[in-house]
Every structure is written in structure tokens, then in C-alpha cells.
Amino acid sequence: MGSVPDALPAPDATLADLGEFGLIDHVTRIVAEVAPGEEVLVGPGDDAAVLRVRRGHVVVSTDLMVEGRHFRKDWADAIDIGHRAAAQNLSDVNAMGGRAAWLTVGFAAPPTLPARWALDFVRGFAEECASVGAGVVGGDVTSSDKITVAVTVLGACTVSPVLRSGAQPGDVLALCGRQGWAAGGLAVLGRGFRSPRVLVDAYRRPQPPYDAGQLAADAGATAMIDVSDGLLADAAHVAHASGVGIDVTSATLDIPEPLLAVGSATGADPLTFVLGGGDDHSLLATFPAGTALPEGWVRIGAVADPGPDGPGVTVDGSPYEGPTGWTHF
Amino acid sequence: MGSVPDALPAPDATLADLGEFGLIDHVTRIVAEVAPGEEVLVGPGDDAAVLRVRRGHVVVSTDLMVEGRHFRKDWADAIDIGHRAAAQNLSDVNAMGGRAAWLTVGFAAPPTLPARWALDFVRGFAEECASVGAGVVGGDVTSSDKITVAVTVLGACTVSPVLRSGAQPGDVLALCGRQGWAAGGLAVLGRGFRSPRVLVDAYRRPQPPYDAGQLAADAGATAMIDVSDGLLADAAHVAHASGVGIDVTSATLDIPEPLLAVGSATGADPLTFVLGGGDDHSLLATFPAGTALPEGWVRIGAVADPGPDGPGVTVDGSPYEGPTGWTHF
Fold first, then answer.
1. Closest Cα in chain A, distance from residue B126 (Å)
2. pLDDT in tens, chain A (329 residues)
3. Do both A89 and A184 map to the same domain?
4. Which residues numbered 4-33 in B keep a CB inside 8 Å of some CB on A?
5. Among A107, A134, B37, B127, fewest CB within 10 Å belongs to which?
6. Which of B130, B157, B184 marks a domain boundary?
7. Residues A283, A234: contact at Cβ < 8 Å?
8. Which residues of this UniProt protein bind Mg(2+) 2 (chains A, B) (predicted)?
9. Quick check: is A169 in a domain?
């Protein structure tokens, strides 16, 4: 905590200029301004944060983001990257049917990184957390060759959490939120372009359907996952965890006009962005047949007994040959 | 969770050979074997872990470790580095007077890393957690140029947590646990030696006084911190957070024989290892005068009103000119 930092470091200051404790002072101030969090008895600055919890379930999830692998500084600015890092983790709590409450952030970066970049990142991160009522309660900073961000999110579940393993043959498969937009934006950026702007923006700052998880849990969802690896890859995670077959009906998937345009320009089938894309943090869930789907949820397929090859995913009744998502090694 | 992995990957398998989901399968199995954790309703493998909490305080802390900065693969084996990574975080909960219960681990590494190294790391990590009854409940794996480990620990406090900010003039300053041993071991390794073995081992696998934090809290400690930056640097954190002056009496500090030997061999004052070293995860606390110190705690100084320059730390009544700890940028 210590002394009160100046309003902002000099425009050309680096992390080395700011120093570890200067950086922590600035981060602590930004976080307290933007998203202090509820039920936080002790925030950043001690050996640990202290949170007041009600008796019940706490959900916890951790993600890593590495520069060059999960983001590029030339493809989005620091504020957007901060939003995206938070969204990725808030979405994991959403996918359990929980409410995100508290986050910690580990931030490793080169000493030469402009301090403004780091503080803009923190501001974007805290703003995204504040949008769902969550607060940043702790973290760590250190030096590394490439920017590496480690986020842990804690949330509360008022109902039983919705796992990946509860899908039953006969259930319907449903999706909520944009799907494939961010993958289209990423494809555009990878080719050196900046438009369609709506897709690039979707990649830079995803808009996860943060209310959809609790609505689905309340409506009786049997399994749920947030689409982070890719629609088919994540559907496969549900299929394997539940021991079922999942079939996606491609005609039910919304392919927005900008994705059609990217398909025409690149020669790619725009459906591949929808089936293989993962950065929108849409939610995928299964519901008992006959469930009135909550607002925003669209039926996109069905759950059946596993096929002769065991649990897995098909598209329109057949194995899918295109890319289904990404792998980390 | 998917298929059951083989007992062990081939001796020469890399992370790339194992693949993301193969690695996760192995890690999940090791963690479940070694330290499943109590009150874990859903462990690794879903979007988030689910924990059953009692109404009360939850403490949470995050740390990053970067290869080359916080550890070197040629200075310790993977099991020891795993133990050390866990110890560093368990110690933060200890310093609040809490009981560590659950941890998440983010693990980023080059695809060429031997899979055995990663799994040995996880085993050492889980073993250290199990030693205090804590379990690994989640994590993330991804690729990066250098091994980077992000740990978040959650714990419970049965009494009010002991902060850094509660020290009062008139309190006594006390220390529990080895102090300076790991710094001595690090100095030896940095010069290319492997002895005194007891110091090298202290660096490789610290032995934090895990019971001391709760004992101190129960005894009425007014402030507490774990020594991770250095004894004087961390005493200064307490002094600034509490707005007090802290004086360390050097004659009360135990300088073990192996540190004297390292001092003789290197020409360094062995006291510098004790005053500036940080990797033992000893605990530093303040208690009201007259408190019967709990077992293992030794009085090493006193708390007073801040001096004319404001809150800070002195040694034997004078400013200290030597190294007081390390900085991260």
C-alpha cells in the first residue's frame, strides 16, 4: 500500500522505471477505483486477500494467457486485451451457472514494457470485472521475457453448479451468444486486415452472454460449457464427460453477414468459423427435451446414445472433417 | 476427464508428444492420488472447480514463478521445484493465520519440455500441498518459451486474519522458522558449488513453519508476514503498513554454523544472508508486550513510534546499509 502514487507515470516510463512496488501501488489504485468488489474484507496489498463468503458453493477457475500465443500487442490495444483476459475467466464461472465475484491477476512482463501498457491492461481487466459486479482482490507482478497473465476467478453458485458430465440422450443442445465472430476477426487480423470491423472488435473485446449461465442453470440445464476451444471441440468435451453422442444441426447455426463476407474474401467456408471458433465465449448447454429455453438460447442440435465409436460429436449426422478447435501444444 | 492415461509417458516423451489433454489427464490423476483435497465437490476437468465452504473468511493469494528468475532447472530437480512453488503459496495463507485448503496451478512450458519433468513438478507440488491437508483443484496448461507457474491458494481463517497493518508501538517483533538458510544455499549454487548440502537443500525444498501462523494468530499477533522478499524488506512492509518503526536486534538472530562456513568461504558477512534472504518462508510477526510467544517463535526486536524519516526499519538502532531483499523489476 505505502505512499499514494502520482496520477499517472510519465508517458515514456517503463515497468523498470516504476519498479515493482510503484507498479503495485498504481494497480491497487486502479482496481479500487474501478471494481473494488463486494464482501472484500482485505483487498490487494497483504499476504492474501480476505473475502466474506456465505455457506455454500464456491467455484474457482484459472487461465493463462501468453503474448504471441493468446494475444498480440499489434492486434489489440492493452485495454481490449485486459477486457478479453477477464472475459475469458468470467465466462468459466458463467458456464457453471455461477456468479463471478473475485479475481486475482498474476502479471509477468519485460522490464522494458511501457508502464502505461500495463496500467491500461489492468484498467480494461477491472472494467470487464466491474461489468458483472466482480472485483480484483489480489495478484502478483514479476519480470519475464514475454507478457504472461494468469487469472484466477472465484464465484458463487446459488443453485447446484452445471457440470459437463450431465448431458442425457434425448436432451436438446442449445447455444447462447455470438459464435464464430471472434474467429472471423482473428482470421482477418492474421491476413493483415482490419475489417469487417465488427468481427475484429468481436475478437478484441468479446461480449460473452454473462447472464445466460444462471438462466440456463435455473431452467434445468443438464450440462454446460463455455466455448473456448471451439464449438465442436467443446461439444466433444461434453460428449466425452457425459458419455453421449452429440449431433449439431448446421442449418440452425447463425452465420452473420460479415462472416459470409470474410468467407468470400478468403475462400474459407464461413461455417468453419462457427464450428471451430472459440474466442467469443458463447455458452453451450444441454436441456431436457421440452424445456422452454431461456431468452437468448437457440436449439442447435440433439443428444443421443453414443455411436459405435463411443462418445463424440457429429454434424448433420456425419463426422466432421474440418478444424474443430485448437490445441495448446 | 476422458480416457485413463497409461501409468507414465515414455521416458523420452515431450509435452508435445503428450498433448494438452494427455498432460491434463496425467496431472489430474497425480493430483487425485496425492492430494485430492477436502470439501472438493468438483475437482479438475470442468470449467471450474466447486468447493464447499463454511460461512466465514476465505483468504486467497496468487504468485508467479518464472524459469531463470525464480528457479533454474540445473539447480534443483522438478520435484523440489514443485515443492517450493507450493510452499511459497501455502506460506502466504500461513502468514494470515489461516489454513490452506485448495490450490490452482497454471503451467506454461515449451512443447519440448520432457513430460516427466512436468509430471514430477506436479507430484512435488501436490505432495507439499498434501503435507498441510490442502489439495489441487484446478489449473491450466499452455505453451510458452520459458516455464512459468502461476499458483493461487485458497484458505480458511477460523479467527480474524492477521494483517500487516496491525503492529503497535511497544509490541515485540518475533520470528519463527529458519531464516537465511535458503539464501546461503542460493549463494552456494550461484558459485557452482553444491555444499553445504543442508543449505542447498533448504533452498531447494524450504521447510516453512506451517503451524506457526495459526499459533501466532491464536496468541494475539497484531501483524504478520511471511518472509519472501527478505527479512528487512518484509519487516519494512509491516512498518509501512502499520505506520511504525521496527528495530531488529542482530544479536538475537540465529546464524547457523553452515552459514558461518559460507561466509568464511565467500568473504560475505553471514548476517547478510539472515537479514536479506527470503526463500525460507519463515514468519515474522508482532505481539503485544508481555505475550507468551508460541512454541518456535523467538523475539528478535521491537516496535516503536516511527522515526523522524517516517515508518521504517533499523538494525540495532541504526539504518542498515546492506542488501535488504530483492526487487522484481
1. 17
2. 334 445 678 888 999 998 888 888 888 888 888 877 788 888 888 888 988 888 778 999 999 999 999 999 999 999 999 999 999 999 999 999 999 999 999 999 999 999 999 999 999 999 999 999 999 999 999 999 999 999 999 998 877 899 999 999 999 999 999 999 999 999 999 999 999 999 999 999 999 999 999 999 999 999 999 999 899 999 999 999 999 999 999 999 999 999 999 999 888 899 999 999 989 999 999 999 999 999 999 999 999 999 998 999 999 999 988 776 655 55
3. no
4. 15-16, 18-21, 23
5. B127
6. B157
7. no
8. 63, 92
9. yes
Residues A105 and A83 in one domain: yes
A28 plus A152 within the same structural domain: yes
For chain A, what is the domain count? 2
* Matching residue, cell 508486550: B289
Could you tell me how many CB contacts below 8 A there are between chain A and chain B? 242
Q: Using a CB-CB distance cutoff of 8 angstroms, which residues of chain B are in contact with residue A90?
A: none
Type of residue numbered A130: A
Q: Is residue A6 part of a domain?
A: no
Chain A CB within 8 Å of residue B156 CB: no
Written as one letter, the residue type at B276 is G
Contact status, residue A182 vs residue B181, Cβ threshold 8 Å:
no
Ordered DSSP codes for A121-159: HHHHHHHHHHTTT-EEEEEEEEE-SS-EEEEEEEEEESS
Do B263 and B185 sit in the same domain of this protein? yes
Cβ distance A148 to B148 less than 8 Å, yes or no, reads: yes
d(C-alpha A302, C-alpha A29), whole Å = 49
Query: Is A108 within 8 Å of A91 (Cβ atoms)?
Result: no
Cα distance between residue A93 and residue A103, in whole Å: 11
Q: How far is the CA of A192 from the CAs of A75, B143, B157, B256, in angstroms?
A: 9, 24, 52, 62
ipTM value: 0.89
Longest dimension (CA), chain A: 66
Q: Which CATH number does the domain housing residue A267 bear?
A: 3.90.650.10
The verdict on whether residue A291 carries a ligand-binding annotation is no
User: Do A105 and A235 belong to one domain?
Assistant: no
Sign of the C-alpha dihedral computed for residues B228, B229, B231 and B234 taken in this order: negative
- The values of phi and psi at residue B46, to 5°, are -110, -170
* Residue B320 resides in a domain: no
Exposure string of A287-297, with b = 16+ CB inside 10 Å and e = fewer, is: beeebebbeeb
Q: Which of residues 29-68 of A touch B (CB under 8 A)?
A: 41-42, 45-64, 66
